[in-house]
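Data availability (excerpt). The following record was deposited with the supplementary files.
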Amino acid sequence: MTHTGTGTRTRLRIKSGHARALANHGPGWAIMWDDGRDQPVIGRHERGDDGTLLEICTYEEMFTLDGHCPNLKDAFACEGCMPGGQPDFAVIADHMTDILGDYYDDRADRAAYMPLTLPYTRALRAHGYQRHAQGTRHPGDHNRAYDTYCQEYRSLEGHRIEMNIPMPPAHGDTPASPLTIQWIYLGRTAPGVTYPATNVPADTPPADVAELITTYLALHPRTPLTPGDATNDTDAPEHTDTPTTT
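Predicted structure:
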């Protein structure tokens, strides 16, 4: 995949040196794409909260990018990325490159709408919940007349929830849409059916939403489901092997 940079055409590519640099930084760090500088950068996971940088992969995910790991909780059991218990940074970088290619065309949406998630991300982080990847815009359909921006969060125990944040309406006279919290960790209510959900007014303060989520999980415990999500892949330009740290 190629894209047009500032007057030059460059390959989106992540190299093995980029993957190795992320491994050296350790937990809490992520590799992201800085479109303004046309290169990958490594920063704390929080640097991806507002969508200014396109998040590719966190340290915690990088050893399971093969997608065929026998146990996603045990990164070092993933033979695709960790043959013989040692990381194959070339393979990991190739997976990151694929992820970047998948995500790159959505970068404008993420830059525009990730700020909607920022107050909830900060409020939930205070309770130990971490943002998982960057969110996705879902257009309205026959079941929902409004667009939403969906962001997943995970508790320290791995319980997954998804926040469906209503997009600002195109017309000021449109009735306010609710904020929907999907309790993914509880599983689907029936095969092919959606997850249990709770609607709250969209103007509910983020701190109150975080309290509601914390209380709900305390009252509805369940063994977390094994995450089956793919992470991110990336491509970086040819002119650098070591991504910038921010």
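Summary of structural features: Confidence is low (pLDDT under 50) at residues 1-9, 224-241.
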